Prior knowledge:
Chain A is mainly alpha-helical.
Amino acid sequence: xxxxxxxxxxxxxxxxxxxxxxxxxxxxxxxxxxxxxxxxxxxxxxxxxxxxxxxxxxxxxxxxxxxxxxxxxxxxxxxxxxxxxxxxxxxxxxxxxxxxxxxxxxxxxxxxxxxxxxxxxxxxxxxxxxxxxxxxxxxxxxxxxxxxxxxxxxxxxxxxxxxxxxxxxxxxxxxxxxxxxxxxxxxxxxxxxxxxxxxxxxxxxxxxxxxxxxxxxxxxxxxxxxxxxxxxxxxxxxxxxxxxxxxxxxxxxxxxxxxxxxxxxxxxxxxxxxxxxxxxxxxxxxxxxxxxxxxxxxxxxxxxxxxxxxxxxxxxxxxxxxxxxxxxxxxxxxxxxxxxxxxxxxxxxxxxxxxxxxxxxxxxxxxxxxxxxx
Amino acid sequence: xxxxxxxxxxxxxxxxxxxxxxxxxxxxxxxxxxxxxxxxxxxxxxxxxxxxxxxxxxxxxxxxxxxxxxxxxxxxxxxxxxxxxxxxxxxxxxxxxxxxxxxxxxxxxxxxxxxxxxxxxxxxxxxxxxxxxxxxxxxxxxxxxxxxxxxxxxxxxxxxxxxxxxxxxxxxxxxxxxxxxxxxxxxxxxxxxxxxxxxxxxxxxxxxxxxxxxxxxxxxxxxxxxxxxxxxxxxxxxxxxxxxxxxxxxxxxxxxxxxxxxxxxxxxxxxxxxxxxxxxxxxxxxxxxxxxxxxxxxxxxxxxxxxxxxxxxxxxxxxxxxxxxxxxxxxxxxxxxxxxxxxxxxxxxxxxxxxxxxxxxxxxxxxxxxxxxxxxxxxxxxxxxxxxxxxxxxxxxxxxxxxxxxxxxxxxxxxxxxxxxxxxxxxxxxxxxxxxxxxxxxxxxxxxxxxxxxxxxxxxxxxxxxxxxxxxxxxxxxxxxxxxxxxxxxxxxxxxxxxxxxxxxxxxxxxxxxxxxxxxxxxxxxxxxxxxxxxxxxxxxxxxxxxxxxxxxxxxxxxxxxxxxxxxxxxxxxxxxxxxxxxxxxxxxxxxxxxxxxxxxxxxxxxxxxxxxxxxxxxxxxxxxxxxxxxxxx
Lengths: 374, 634
């Protein structure tokens, strides 16, 4: 069956390579190289574990992305549900056999990589719902069964991820899913009313939060409440970014990170280090790079002939945007601290794997932009 | 075809909704850029400061104290290089092994080892642990020999206070030691400069002039990480040694005073009668201030504390004594000034005097016969002074006594533990004791017994002000060229300017002359009480007045026994006093000598003056050669 799908493509290998989006590829490449330099800085200017590991993962996943791009978009459409189910099964497996780190059971040990299935679900949910809305006819989009089905697809992974517990990732999965519903044509008033009811139920949600999650929200509202405890991360992060100034302290000169004042500088707070060393110029530059990536992805969606590719590209572009926004707002003190990595920049294999798969499928959509899917 | 239409409609919806989201994205990205701008451009300075505050830590080092020098510039409180042994625990592989090695090499006691181990627990592993504060050169070189096997051990050379003249200046200078909580709370300057290992003045001038002597800390600026560990040194800011303080004291005279007082309790003070400069000020017995630098041992402390001669008391300023007959010049002066008597006034001494049924004895049981003022002073006839005191009254006597400095602190701004003593009058007794004054008390006040309490420095000042022709002086122990920060001492030095203005304390200067002559007779004429101690050479010739202060009432039986000094128990023996000034022809110096339980003033105290005046006058020759010498001719 797979064979059949691949043979169905009317392009040969050379044509496919020619059809890749080189601006997008170049942007991703620049981002990857940048992330290596920043990782090198978090290691204190030495070629240590994090840098090496990041380099290996980048290389492997970059190749994986190119491989994925060569597969016909029809193929990804075909296996979307299958992938979704596989990831759900992985999430269930993790909830039983997963590795527990600081009270949260999210990882499965693959020896070369501690895989976090919830990260993969960020892509999985987009694939699954893109296929679903590709197939549902416009008239039926707002029918009860259709919405119920779509919400169920979103809810299953969310429940599994929340119970890990991992609030941050589950929110990102929910947002990635909901955006497809939006793009698919679910009525605006539904979004409006569910937003209102979300606000109303917010107090109940908060009262059911884990104590550490509540603390994070309190700390967000007033970081100086406990400057050496919960507020420490936000305060130190703001100091690092603020002290970077217009042009930054210079590569490897970020005192806040170099002297260990920054917590989790490899992962969620990588932007802080980047911003401290490269300043306002560097930060807006990085933001611009991300913007170019997002715009290129959207462009690919626009030129795609089939709704599946469109939905996926737009959904993925939105996800990338959400990851960046949540991560930056967090380190800039605009949102409470929810564990959320910065795509490609942050250390962490699962997030990078998911992002690269996403890029791969987007590139596949570009290569096969004229492909229609019945 | 229909399907294709559907397709187009669907992609329309998707595209339209995409662009709504797209617009929202741009707005949010704009918000993030704005936030970045606010943090990095607007508040950059604020966060840069916070970041520096995070990473830069200052380490203050103990400042170097200023030297204290005597009048001739000899260092009497200086600084010495000392060798210390520090251990950096984080560099040590096996701490217990290292300590046991050091224990052998340095011969440390078990108690000391325990202390070191306890101290280690309170420190962060990268902070230096002081194993020994003061190594001898031998120990220091021994450690250096073993250094290759003692990893983590750091021999350190640092600076410590040193008193080269050991105990002769203790009561003037005081000593330094580690500050306690109270010291730190009391003095803001210490608060600011405090670092572990700093030594501050605990007593005497070291304490009073703390803010001048303390100096400015060396500062090391380090970059530290989030855990406070030093990463690298950014800057070394050299501090400043504390101000040099020059005293008016003469080490040679001070040394002789200490020598004369060897084995005795008491005090010697010497003063320039015009400038008010203290030439010597020694309280006996003394103790070695160097013992306090690194914490005195219990044994040594107990020895000092329990010494019956009370070395901890600065007797010159805080010892209260009945002046005995040394008060007589003031009594006579008061009588003259108040017109109670003329120079030809005579009293017949029969060895005792009866008043309201009470008997008042003269020291000479047989009596002196008819006494003039000069004779009475010369032979220290008590009956004569009973009589003039009775005629004068205690209230008038007090006015004169106070004018000449009795009952008031002399160097209070310089020494916090000085006592004022007291000179009684009728009002004082009512206020303090709630009883009326009895005439008999006037009589004994007239011979310096009773309620009168004076300090040796007061008697010295009193004598100086008689010697200089009756002019007020404010004594000082610092030379005028000191640049001072300590406000109260600065003010006291200002007050000493009065010494150059000849403010008279007399009503008629003739009277002062009469008293001076009487004191001359007392020392230089036959039958004078200190005749034996006189010096005939006019270069050294001095005039003085002996005093023998009873410490307990002599019973009738004891009077009949007429015991020799050595036959009386130590605590019951009389205090021996002597006040004098010289050279008589052109006086310049006054002194007071007090030997506790020394017997009589003429036998114990006056002979010391002989030796002192020889040296003082000789030393005057050297004093004269210094640039700040001032000539006085009255």
